Amino acid sequence: MQLAVWRLVGTPLPRDLTVARALLARAAAIGHVDAALMQVALTANGSGAAAPDWRGALALLRVAAAGDPVAAAQLALVDAMTIDAAGRPVRAPVGELLCDAPRVVRFRGFLSAAECAHVAGVAAPMLAPARVIDPASGRWVTHPVRTADDAAIGPANEDMVVRAINARIAAASGTDIAAGEPLTVLRYRPGQQYRPHLDTMAGAANQRVMTMLLYLNAGYRGGDTHFPAPGLSVVPVPGDALLFRNTLPDDRPDPLSRHAGQPVLAGTKWLATRWIRAAPLDPWALSG
Fold first, then answer.
1. Are the C-beta atoms of residues 153 and 131 closer than 8 Å to each other?
2. What's a Gene Ontology MF term here (predicted)?
3. Pair 88, 191: CB distance under 8 Å
4. Are strands 259-261 and 225-227 parallel, antiparallel or unpaired?
């Protein structure tokens, strides 16, 4: 299992997803539960193979679920979804237009309560204070805009539930699932916020053209999503999703898409974000 992890993260051994898949299969065959779950994730998203294999991943998950409660819980969530043989929603979610400029669409009940809890639970062990790389020093520093804890659910942890949710996001946004960055979960405690910002990246060849926000919980005050230019504030409702466009028709950043996560006044806010690029990207390139 350790050799497989090294091959996935690329240290101390070079990254080799095909070799990692083979090592995980060997570990799973002798009863290593974590290896089995990781093997399921990589099979579903196609890492180390020619293409994603939802059917194969589902077969592996059913085997794992027979002896592991974590796998069984994942299988129950997948079985409750209305999806096709590739893990995609049978019908694309339909949203409510809140604003034309920027284009903001709200999807009511996008996630079930169990799906919200699952996403938060997958990310919880990986949460850390938000950081960015300082372009001057090349060192990791505290994020100057986002005062929260965050964690990206990269391809090694993208279980079948998360994979199906990412496919749902792709269907709602009319984009390729491969164009989405890893789903990122943020946890805001009292006083924490995401100050006004654009989600676009300066000089990016493959720009973030859209953003999907998923509201995961209730029980807190504050934390509205606010767009200053159109004067739009969205009160988070658990299970709802918010999709907005970040770029203009000529692909330049849209200044009207500037937005903020207002300070949390009491309780803890959980939110998931998926930034969607103009074209497919390699999620492993964002995994260090």
1. no
2. L-ascorbic acid binding
3. no
4. antiparallel
CA–CA dist 272, 185 (Å, integer): 4
pLDDT over 90, % of the chain: 90
Q: Which helix (H) or strand (E) element contains residue 116?
A: helix 113-123
Specify the pLDDT at position 148: 87
Structure tokens at 12: 């101390």
pLDDT digits (tens, 9 = 90+) for 122-171: 999 999 988 665 556 655 567 677 778 999 999 999 999 999 999 999 99
Task: Identify which of 152, 147, 185, 150 has the alpha carbon closest to the alpha carbon of residue 264.
Answer: 147
Query: Cβ distance 257 to 266 under 8 Å?
Result: no
Residue of 86, 115, 113 whose CA lies nearest to 218: 113
Domains delineated in the chain: 1-80 (1.25.40.10), 95-277 (2.60.120.620)
**H or E element, residue 260:** strand 259-261
Rounded Cα distance between 15 and 58, Å, is 26
Nearest to 223 by CA among 171, 196, 198, 260: 260
Pairwise CA distance, residues 115 & 143, whole Å = 28
The CA distance from 286 to 199, in Å, is: 16
At 137 the pLDDT is 60
* Amino acid, res. 14: P
| Confidence tier at 286 by pLDDT (50, 70, 90) | confident
How many beta carbons lie within 10 A of that of residue 249, not counting itself? 7
- Are 159 and 148 in contact by the 8 Å Cβ rule? The answer is no
Q: How far apart are CA 214 and CA 271, in angstroms?
A: 6
